[in-house]
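re: ur question from earlier - yeah i can do the single chain one, its not a big deal. heres the input i used so u can compare w yours
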Amino acid sequence: MLEYKKAVPDDYTKVLEVWEKSVKETHDFLSQKDLEFYKAAIPDYLDVVELLLWYEDKQLIGFSGTQDEELAMLFLVPEFIGKKFGSKMLIWLLENKNIQKIDVNAQNKNAKAFYLKHGFVIDSEDETDGFGKNYPILHLVKQKENE
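and the output i got, formated as tokens:
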């Protein structure tokens, strides 16, 4: 059964391990240099979001980070990708955190398809990410029920 707990600073090492494994699996467009850059930057954002660790039968499967109505982070341990855990997490966040916005790397085709499948639409696109790096970002918004 899928369960979550609020992360505390002592959990950040686990979060970073999941993040790195997940990114290596899903972000093959990142250079090694940029991977290291983001890995160093991520800890600065963990205190800014509501960080939840997600478990299935006491095994860590991933984490999410939300801020207001935005999903800022959703990462899974690679062996749980494609097994509906991301969908379960997202549905819970949509229902309980009223998620309305998500930014996703345009080059991450699977993530883009995942969020579009869950009722998000592309609102706008930036040619670079928030750090000014050449990774286009899609700004997604939750499609209104009557659209």
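The chain has a mean pLDDT of 95. not sure if urs matches, ping me
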